[in-house]
């Protein structure tokens, strides 16, 4: 059915409104009662009852705003208490593991980080370190997290956090969600790093005001995350958005996934390194330094990166024709492209994509959260059910 | 923000529940009060109040079910009255125009149809015929439609029904929504034919039980419609799903859209005609006859259609990697492929697509509503706001 018809019981209304209010404070920060009433479309007495309830539960405090507008009694500012609900955010990268405690409002209250040897990351080690970090952070902050969000560079099943393929970790079919749940005795959700990057940029980054946005990030692999109609596009088993394995060049390079000419093989780290004429062992810092050096010579950069830019534009035009975003965010290595080249790619996509021509509304820009995106997204993934249940 | 926090006022609850109940009856047909209570998760007294209200407004009637289960007093069957709310569904095809009056429950209560000369369809003629059909059907049925849904073979802007490009009609930038609104003095919504086909298959066809489905249809062009998380994927300006202009073969045939090797040029009517060795002037009936003749010789068919099937599978694997549907429906010419070939294409896609391998859940099948899909979808487009406001 086009929209599943389910009824609403009156007792659900208060819970819904309480969650909406908390979510508003979590995403956009402190707010006066008056502004909350306007933004949520509720009357002031309803807001008062809700805020009183949240204050009683120690989730918010109220204070007189420092800046007063107009005459009369000032509307009290409702401020969430970061430590009132904490989650653990875990970013399993190819070369590092980060664990952070994140509070209501999105502040990182503490973190631990480890360097990893590429290709030698064992799930058991990850679990052990996360468990250790959780104990350390709980002691440091004087409070326990209530849920865990995990980012992995691979396909993860939403229902149970099973990692199906994470090629750059050399993981296949790893029950990461179950392992972490057993070790931490907390609800655990696992998501793809690019999906969570998209969620982060949508919640706290460059895509805040975009209802339809696509986040494309190139690191070792190329990943994508899609925001559609204001929410994460999930697809069956939560596995949508594997943009890196869209075939753009059927006679292109062989990809580990079995296809030839995946977007990942044509615009990922290897392709960029090769286009720049760097040796095969040149690491990420060397590539980034080379891109930075070319920022003032966009024409030379465009010549050297011509192939990569062509396949980037072709793939983006495909993505735009399928998903019709108003905004495309480039992350990872792609965010480091000289700004003039990003603009040029955007112009090509606007010209080539029938959908962009029809809507007249497409921007292609660099993402803003950088390497933190997946971690911030992991925290938001964990917070979604937490905020709804507080 | 990931999910826009808006509050709910208690008076919205009753309206929401009334709309949910009506929608349930519209989509799935007559139902006992007891089953409605279970399905909608509402108690029986709430259901009684809602049904009494609908009966008072003459939208439903109640009757004793003919088949009785168990002992005791039978639960009354709630039956929607088709003529209590009618919409006008319009399908502007490349070679014919269809106008139908559709009642609650989806029954076509009456229709008018005209043949059109390909490439010589003028917007003013369409508007005139729709206005004429509306008068005729209203007289015939003894009731007026309250809203209009229109399907066009092109990109249409959701907000005002402006048709941006409908290449096979030779239309560009036609304010069809405004023209029809002015002529009919009714709310008009315009959608892309493939998007509406997807909506129809999801509401009343093969994708009824699929929360994530993709409908790909090949006629003169190739179009796509996407159901994601149980609802139509719209994108900015409602223009998502232009799957036909995904480039699958960068060195392929020139497409009118400006790109080379669009999916449409590789698997559309022209490509199928050419693969079958039919002359350029062979029409749709000749192509369909040839496909039908080969149904019992799948190996010969596979050889003759090899190129088309390869590009079909490559494009579908891309679509599956991006959108992660559980179901792909092939419509139009593609639904006429020999069933064995559709199965083979499905097997290739399941093997090639990383997302299909991860989810383990992808079926590729022929659509079931045939040439009626766009018309049925246009009716559903019109019904959405009507049912919510009755």
TrEMBL record, chains A, B:
InterPro entries noted in UniProt: ATPase_NBD (IPR043129), ROK (IPR000600), WH-like_DNA-bd_sf (IPR036388), WH_DNA-bd_sf (IPR036390)
GO molecular function, one term: kinase activity
Keyword vocabulary terms for this entry: Kinase, Transferase
Gene3D superfamilies: 3.30.420.40, Winged helix-like DNA-binding domain superfamily/Winged helix DNA-binding domain
PANTHER family reported in the protein's UniProt record: BIFUNCTIONAL UDP-N-ACETYLGLUCOSAMINE 2-EPIMERASE_N-ACETYLMANNOSAMINE KINASE, ROK (REPRESSOR, ORF, KINASE) FAMILY
Family from the record: Belongs to the ROK (NagC/XylR) family.
UniProt name for this protein: Sugar kinase
Organism: Longimycelium tulufanense
């Amino acid at each position: 059915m086009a929209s599943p018809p389910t009824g609403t019981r009156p007792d659900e209304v208060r819970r819904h409104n309480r969650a909406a209010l908390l979510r508003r404070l979590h995403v956009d920060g402190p707010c006066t009662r008056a502004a909350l009433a306007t933004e949520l479309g509720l009357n002031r007495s309803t807001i008062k009852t809700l805020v009183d309830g949240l204050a009683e539960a120690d989730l918010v405090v109220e204070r007189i705003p420092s800046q007063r507008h107009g005459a009369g009694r000032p509307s009290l500012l409702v401020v969430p208490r970061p430590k009132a609900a904490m989650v653990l955010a875990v970013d399993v990268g190819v070369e590092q593991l980060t664990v952070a405690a994140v509070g209501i409002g999105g502040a990182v209250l503490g973190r631990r980080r480890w360097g990893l040897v590429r290709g030698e990351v064992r799930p058991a080690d990850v679990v052990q370190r996360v468990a250790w970090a959780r104990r350390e952070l709980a002691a440091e902050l004087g409070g326990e997290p209530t849920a865990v969000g995990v980012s992995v560079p691979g396909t993860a099943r939403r229902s149970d956090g099973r990692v199906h393929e994470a090629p750059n970790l050399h993981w296949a079919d790893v029950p990461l969600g179950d392992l972490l749940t057993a070790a931490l005795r907390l609800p655990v959700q696992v998501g793809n790093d690019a999906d969570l990057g998209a969620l982060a940029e949508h919640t706290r980054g460059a895509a805040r005001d975009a209802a339809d946005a696509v986040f494309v990030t190139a690191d070792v692999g190329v990943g994508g995350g899609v925001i559609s109609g204001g929410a994460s596009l999930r697809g069956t088993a939560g596995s949508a958005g594997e943009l890196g394995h869209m075939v753009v060049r059927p006679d292109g390079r062989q990809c580990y996934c079995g296809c030839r000419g995946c977007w990942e093989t044509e615009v990922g780290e290897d392709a960029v390194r090769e286009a720049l004429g760097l040796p095969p062992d040149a690491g990420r810092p060397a590539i980034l330094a080379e891109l930075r050096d070319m920022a003032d010579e966009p024409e030379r950069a465009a010549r050297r990166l011509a192939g990569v830019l062509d396949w980037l534009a072709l793939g983006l035009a495909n993505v735009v024709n399928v998903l019709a975003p108003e905004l495309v965010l480039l992350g990872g290595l792609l965010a480091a492209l000289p700004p003039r080249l990003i603009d040029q790619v955007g112009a090509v996509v606007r010209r080539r994509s029938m959908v962009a021509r029809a809507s007249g509304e497409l921007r292609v820009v660099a993402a803003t959260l950088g390497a933190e995106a997946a971690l911030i997204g992991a925290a938001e993934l964990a917070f979604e059910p937490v905020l709804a249940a507080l």
